[in-house]
Known about the structure:
The protein is an alpha/beta fold. Helix content is 43%, strand content 20%. It has helices spanning 15-25, 47-57, 73-80, 92-109, 127-135, 146-156; strands at residues 3-8, 30-36, 64-69, 84-89, 112-117. Strands 3-2-1-4-5 form a 5-stranded parallel beta sheet, with helices on both faces. It starts with a strand and ends with a helix. Belongs to the bacterial CoaD family.
Amino acid sequence: MAIAVCPGSFDPVTLGHADVVTRAAALFDEVVVAVAINPAKKGLFSVDERRDLLATALDGLDNVRTDAFEGLVVDYCRSIGAATMVKGLRSATDLGFEEPMAQMNRHLTGVDSVFLITDPAHSFVSSSLVKEVARGGGDISAFLHPEVHRRLLERLG
Length: 157
């Protein structure tokens, strides 16, 4: 069984994230969307809330589940028997950032990285930008699942 991990903070999950996970689900037997736990970072949503929002945004993908991890993502991959990490790339800048990490991960553990080019409709969207625009009163509904949108606006007050 081919297992892949899609790691990230997902604070909150966007339609761009959902697109990458959906496409990964068509390529692998099982996809684990793993929320990174970083005690040094204060997220808008708790890890459990992010997993809940992911489950909502990814509903209907039978071979996808969510989890959370601390530490190196490659150690997490090995712990669940995943030989592959899947990442979405929005631009050449993302590739420049991800490539050395992918090489180091493969060197350390043999875990390979697969990069999926983001759908152009989502190429400029990030969780940080969505939160910033929402805080300023902008309409971010086109970038989020309706329930994620509702919960984000509720959280921001």
